[in-house]
Please model this.
Amino acid sequence: MNTIETIKPQLNELFQAFQADLWISVREAVDRTGTMLKKGGLEPAIHATLGEQLLKLARHGKWEVRKSLAHASLYLRHESFFRIMAALDLDDNAMVRTAARRTLSRRSDIARSDSLRNQHGDRMLKWLTDLEAKHGLPARNAARKATERLNAQFIKELNHEFIKVISPLDASLEHINNGLHDPDADMGKLRRHAQRALDRSRFLFAIMNSLRALTEKIELDFQMETVLSMIDEAVHLVHDRAPENQCLSVDVQISPEIALQANRHLLLQAFSNILQNSLEAYPDRSHKCCASVAASIEENGLIRIVIADQGNGMPEEAVNDAFQLFSTSKPRGTGFGLALAKKIIESDHGGSIHLASSEGVGTTITIFLPQDQEDRSW
Model:
């Protein structure tokens, strides 16, 4: 792996070129930097150093340089990446803004691909297999290491998501602060930055509330509940979340006799999250957005619930990590909805949840739940 010392002459040459009077020379240096980052093999300190220098170019006078910066930053592995993108996303030039948004989209695809190569489920399966093959103290040590690794991975992902939210918030606040000291500031632009900062702040609260719901340990209270009554209430909950949600039309085919022991509050949360996803699968909400829910009792005694829509559907890579934390393609999505539904159905109720989807066809979620919670082994 290259260190700062091993490529110091190359870095110095780039940094000098960043300050060249000819903007074409600056752009060429930015392009070379992008190539260097794409090749990889650079220690974190190099990414940090390059990030600091590239961030300065986000305010370069030529839009051609700023556009090249948007492309070159794709493989920058440092928090300055999000600060660069936040600045370019607010650029006065439409081509620069478009380039920045495409880079952010490609970065999300790369992150998703990395996640798929390193799935949490695969890791846990390997650790549990190792644990099963051992006994006593070695087994306990193996479990401790597994917990530590999961914890480190979760913190890493959470930090990544927070930076993505905080960076544009920081950029907007900086613009507001500068405007307060400028008597000729554009008040309309300042108001837009203030609204953006407010939206980002609320989004952070949404993430924290979802995180608390996902991780908090509650005393589960189970009562006999009919599936029909819970689905009906879940539909009303989705309708009440926003006026535009009234377009959701759900065809419910459930016998009023189908019932199970359940924590009603939690299952309502799971069902409404799934139905919200069904609604958001339709890009045009000016027309009716249809979903269907059916339930039956299987031969093994499990209750089978199928929730389907005919929305956009999902590509294969999105299906693979649909239940992963922070996995979302929605601009204002937290990526907690299906992850929380999975936790409620599987961990809290001893059931299982499965998702099948095809682009242009729609999405089907199948849930299996036990009727009786008394015989469960906790």
